[in-house]
Amino acid sequence: MARPFRLQSLLDHKQQLEDESMRVLAERERERTRAADVLTILHDVQEKQLQHLEDLARVVSIDAAERRDATSYLERIERSIVVQHDVIAEAEARVAESRDALVEILKEKRALERLRQQHVETTAREEGRREAVARRVDHRHGEAVVDEQLPRAHQEIVGAPAEAAAGRDAQAAVEIGRAHF
Fold first, then answer.
1. If both were cysteines, with which of 16, 43, 88, 173 could 164 make a disulfide (CB 3.0 to 4.6 Å apart)?
2. CA separation, residue 70 to residues 41, 46, 56 (Å)
3. How far apart are CA 57 and CA 78, in angstroms?
4. What is the Cα–Cα distance from 49 to 66, expressed in whole angstroms?
5. Which pTM does this prediction carry?
6. pLDDT (tens digit, 0 to 9) for every residue of the chain, 181 residues total?
7. d(Cα 150, Cα 129) in Å, to the nearest integer?
8. How far are the Cα atoms of 161, 163, 165 from residue 168, in angstroms, in the given order?
């Protein structure tokens, strides 16, 4: 029976954090895109207003009040453009922050996944060894008889604890215990 991966709940939690972090990153990228779209619109409005003023100046003379209103409007647009650049910079900083958080979560999750893979491989090797020993042990007359072709360490595992328990070679049992633990 395979042992469960002890850190599976932590790995599951990291997956949830990854999902949430990806959702936050996507939302912050949408916010940055919207801010950039607003900036584009402001630049378009500014360009159209400048073009409109040039067209009026060529066709008709503009009185002082109209010129003042148009200039004031262009100044407000310019201030809005400056503010929007700040909004975009803040949005980009939030995107970078979210991306960094996601990268950190992914690193931690990747490390846990490597540990899980090592656990799976180790468990499979242990199970394979147990099955190999079980196939080579012949249960005759209620006693386990070890195949002579088994490596010495396997023979010691099966035979030495019984000898040590009988009091014949306690030192061998201690050495075998050290070698296997």
1. 173
2. 18, 11, 11
3. 21
4. 12
5. 0.64
6. 678 999 999 999 999 999 999 999 999 999 999 999 999 999 999 999 999 888 877 877 778 888 888 889 999 999 999 999 999 999 999 999 999 999 999 999 999 999 999 999 999 999 989 888 887 765 544 455 444 444 554 444 444 444 444 443 445 444 444 444 4
7. 11
8. 10, 6, 8
Number of alpha carbons in the 13 Å side-chain half-sphere of residue 66? 10
Residue type for position 126: E
Locus of tokens 């067209």: 55
Please report, to the nearest 10 degrees, the dihedral formed by the alpha carbons of residues 70, 73, 75, 76 taken in order: 180
The tokens for 98 are 């979210």
Please list the alpha-helical segments (H only) found in the chain. Answer: 8-59, 64-136, 152-165, 170-180
